[in-house]
Amino acid sequence: MPQKPARDEIPPGTLYLLILRTLALRGKMHGWGIAEHIHEVSDVLHVEEGSLYPALQRMLIKGWVSAEWGLSDNNRRARFYSLTPDGRRQLQEELSQFERVNRGILRVLEWSGA
Amino acid sequence: MGSKAARWVRELCRRAAFIARRKQWHEDADSEIRFHLAMREDQNRAAGMTEDDARFAARKAFGNPLRLRDDAREAWLGPALEAFLMDLWLAARGMRRRPGYALLGGVTLALAIGACTAVFSLAYAVLLRPLPFPQPERLVRVYEDAAARGFPRGDTSPGNFRHLQQETRSFSALTMWHRTGATLTGEGEPERVDGLRTAANFFEVFGVAPQYGRAFQPGDDRPGAPPAVILSYRLWTRRYGGDPALVGRSISINDRPHLVLGVMPAAFSYPTSETQFWMPADLDARDWAKRGLRYFLVAGRLREGVSPEAAQSELDALAPLVREADPVANRDFRAVVVPLRDDLAGRAKDRLILLTGAVLLVLLIACANVAHLILSRSVRRASELALRLSLGASRGRLMRQLLAESLTISLVGGAAGFALAAWGLRVFAFLIPASMADTAAVRPDGAMAILALALALVAALLSGVVPAWRLSGVNWNESLRQGSSRLIGGFGQERLRGVLVVSEVAFAVMLVIGATLLVRTLLESLAVHPGFDSRNVLTATTLPPAPHLEFERRNEFLDEALRRVRALPGVTGAAYMSAIPFTWKGGKLDFEVQGKPRENAQGALIRQVTPGYFGVLRTKLIEGREFTGDDRMSSEPVAVVNRALARRYLDGNPTANHVRIHGPGFDGTWYRVVGVSEDVLEMGLLAAPQPMIYLSPRQTRADFNLPFGLAARTTGDPDTLVPSLRATLREAWPAMPVSRVRTLESLREAELAERRPMAILSGALAAVALLLASVGVYGLLSFTVAQRIPEFGIRAALGASAFSILSSATRRGVGLALAGTATGVAASLALVQLMRGLLYGVKPVDPMAFAAAPVLVLLLAMTACIVPAWSVMRVDPSRALRSE
Questions:
Q1: Cα–Cα dist B486/B786, whole Å
Q2: Is the minimum CB–CB distance between B27 and chain A shorter than 8 Å?
Q3: What is the Cα gyration radius of chain B?
Q4: Where are the beta strands (DSSP E) in B658-799?
Q5: What is the pTM (predicted TM-score) of this model?
Q6: Per-residue pLDDT for B624 more than 80?
Q7: CA-based angle B816:B819:B822, to the nearest 5?
């Protein structure tokens, strides 16, 4: 048995940001690829299938991503997602929001009583 | 903000697209999951797992694929929609288990939705659908107001038309036409068709160009211009085989070659679908100057931005000038502007508005009944509802479920209603005025289906919301503990049902009063004596062999035709007349009574009739004699007048008077009055009798109206004589067209054409309303009575009389019926004033309608009360008590 990979929950609300960022950098990707990319790059984050696919569907409804069928590297039929202009705008928004929140959290953590 | 809305709309479209391609989506989701699993397996195998372990581990890591699919699906549908579809499915399944309940509601709504769909579709087509002309709202008709002579919208004269055309600024173009007939000869059977003579700018005003060839040009209508014609699409295809090469060739009309200038498109049929051709007017300068001879019909196109009201004020300002121009002929000249749409719709507008109101009332009653149904049934489902509530279902959730039920019934009713409406369009077709037969044709189409669907949704809301709100707010657990038979009271359901019953009864009373008025109108019109005996009379219109017959030839023709027709077996008498009653509601000329100032006369209908006319039609002569063969050019000129004229204009002994007529062809001869006839209602069965003067065609050179009207009295069924009459006339003059062979009775019937179906239809709607309202009252009473059975049992056991129990059981129902009746009568008092234009012989506040209708409704409502109450009387007290 291989070693179980480390599993850390993705903070709520950041899954969209991660998917958007992944697609923005790597272009067209299928669901599996997105999950693997996040896992590999982060080393700790594991994307649950049960959250990934519903999230992708919601992003389709919002019009942030578009989907088309194609062949994967090993010649399997897969659904590829890519970013739309709306999605690019959304990524900027989510990024700045994330940074704002992060800065806030850091400020709280680093405060040592002035 | 706008982009946000746009984004929302785009999102909605994507959701809708998802619903439309649901099946494809499920397949996609499945194959995406399969792909994911396959990738995981590969990874596991690469890490050294066995084939089976790899697959198992992949599945395990993934979780439940079905669950995933459902989650993703809910993302698309939204939880509310998803749940509502489930509710609909549940409701439909529930209906299948109780088909009677669904059927009753469905049939009720189908009737109401069907009637609404048909009437609304027709009302839209007649009153709202754009007319097939460019910028139709700028088109108006211009009439002379001659209400004093019985024509609120009367024709105008060439002189007055010219005057208006030159002086007005409101119109970008004003055009005129008058009706004419034409005998087509040449190839094929000789044929008589109707058409118009128009000013050259006729088509310019309507803004429609011919499909082939050209429209009239200025100058086509000047005196001496070569004869020309534009054909209707219908005539062109039917008689000339639809050959485009016909344009530029000549065809024979009235035995003269006419150049075919063009063919109009099929969609153009103004003013009626009977119009088969248009010819340029052929008037000379003398004709154009005439102001007293009124036979012009006028239409105009308003200038951009000019309202019909503005045009009317301009014409009003101009009227004194037109009056001054000819103080005799234009004594009370006034021009009226009527928007083309109103002109075409005419009386149909009143009918359609009235029926729209009536079918809406029926729909409301039907919805109230379905609401009753849902309330009654839900009480039986009390335990189910209580269970759901106690398991944590929200009030909204329960409401949705109850609404789904009314929606299911309504959708079934809507579908059946659409089918009913498609069939009913034929029944309702009489509502389309003849002038709009082409433009307002209605066929069952997608728009009508959408209308039925929309009505079904409205019905679902109307019949579902109130019960759903009420029921979902009930404390069912409390109710359950009290026993299910007690569920009715206590939470306002009783009051709600009371309101429903009162409104149902009120609506039914309104409909019954309206229908009674219309039925009484029909009966009154049927009872009208037209001034002749329409039974066993055959009529025909014939044309003399040449269009312009000299006086002598004309009388030879009339005599010869009558001789042959009278010789037919089964014919007891025949006469010619310049117009068969009801077929020509015009021909009024000014007349003068010797020894009196001319200003007193308001004009009279002038008719030429051959000797024997009054005998053939059995029009009674009140005084004097009718024409005989001895009245000739060489003998004393004589006239017969009708009672209306004699009463109004002749003093003392009518037969001592002389009259003369001012009009084309009349040379100022004084005619001695030799007879007074009863009034013949030439202007229509329901129009007031007009003063009339009859002359013999042997004693005047004035035009005998073309075509000639022939009437023959028969011994038996006149229809059997149609072939022999045609054959006889054809035999005498092979080239003579014989048209419109009809019985006089059918002409009389046609006068009632719209009243009869209107009375039947409103009667049927009222009957349906009555039935539904009775069912509503019955439903309420049988419920409350059933609920009180134990109480009645106790009373009976304590010795209460049967009567006191009966009256106590019915009191509430009767009270509600009374309240509803009073409301209905009060509302009707205001509403019947709107029906004034549709009534004849009855006043809007007709005592009979206002007394009989409520009594009828009350009787039915009370019967509906007594039936359930009666069952109480037969209840065994001991059993009733045990049922508690």
A1: 10
A2: no
A3: 37
A4: 658-662, 671-677, 692-695, 708-714, 738-743
A5: 0.70
A6: yes
A7: 150
Q: Is B518 helix (H, G, I), strand (E, B) or coil?
A: helix
Nearest residue of A to residue B37 by CA position?
Answer: A32
Q: What is the pLDDT of residue B490?
A: 43
Q: Which two three-digit tokens encode residue B157?
A: 């004269």
Alpha helices in B182-337 (DSSP H): 202-206, 233-240, 285-289, 308-325
Q: Residue A32 is nearest to which of B14, B35, B75, comparing CB atoms? A: B35
pLDDT digits (tens, 9 = 90+) for B800-809: 887 887 787 7
B22 touches chain A (CB under 8 A): no
User: Given this model, what pLDDT does residue B678 score?
Assistant: 95
Contacts of B68 in chain A (CB under 8 A): 49-50, 53-54
Terminal-residue alpha carbon distance, chain B: 63
How confident is the model at residue A113, as a pLDDT? 72
Higher pLDDT, B707 or B848: B848
- Which of B34, B71, B74, B82 to probe by mutation at the A interface, max A CB count within 10 Å? B71
Task: List % helix, strand, coil for chain A (3-state, nearest 5).
Answer: 55, 15, 30
Q: Which chain B residues touch A16 with a CB distance below 8 Å?
A: none
pLDDT greater at residue B839 or residue A22 = A22
Contact assessment for residue A16 and residue A95, using Cβ atoms and an 8 Å cutoff: no
Q: Of the candidates A63, A72, A74, which has its C-beta nearest B11's C-beta?
A: A63
Beta-bridged to residue B713, according to DSSP, are B537, B573
Report how far residue A57's alpha carbon sits from residue B75's, in angstroms, rounded to the nearest whole number.
7
CB burial of B501-528 (b: ≥16 within 10 Å; e: otherwise) equals bbbbbbbbbbbbbbbbbbbbbbeebeee
B874 vs A: CB within 8 A: no
The answer to whether the CB atoms of B75 and A57 lie below 8 A apart is: yes
Pairing of strands B191-198, B277-280: parallel
Nearest residue in A to B42, CA atom: A74
Give B10 to chain A, closest Cα distance, Å: 8
How many other CB atoms are there within 10 angstroms of residue B441's CB atom?
A: 12
Per CB-CB distance under 8 Å, the chain A contacts of B71 are: 50, 53-54
pLDDT of residue B875: 65
Q: Which residues of B763-772 are buried (b: 16+ CB within 10 A; e: fewer)?
A: bebbebbbbb
Per the CB < 8 A criterion, the answer to whether B280 and B198 are in contact is: yes
- Residue B706: the pLDDT is 66
CB contact at 8 A, B144 and B335: yes
CB of B281 closer than 8 Å to CB of B244: no
B297-302 and B335-339 strand pairing: unpaired
Is residue B812 classed exposed, middle or buried when 0-12, 13-18 and 19+ CB atoms within 10 A define those classes?
middle
**For chain A, what is the radius of gyration of the CA atoms?**
16
Cα–Cα distance measured from residue B696 to residue B638, given in angstroms and rounded to the nearest whole number: 8
ipTM of the complex model: 0.86
Q: Which of A34, A53, A90 to mutate to test the interface with B (most CBs of B within 10 A)?
A: A53
**B21, B24, B408, B833 from B78: Cα distances, Å:** 16, 19, 21, 52
pLDDT digits (tens, 9 = 90+) for B166-184: 999 999 999 999 888 788 8
Task: Report the distance separating Cα B164 and Cα B146, nearest Å.
Answer: 17
pLDDT tens digit sequence for A56-90: 888 888 889 999 998 888 888 899 999 999 999 99
The pLDDT assigned to B485 comes to 44
Å from A108 to nearest chain B CA?
35
Q: B53, B59, B68, B69: best mutation site toward chain A, by most A Cβ within 10 Å?
A: B68
Q: Which of B11, B48, B68 sits opposite A50 (nearest CB)?
A: B68
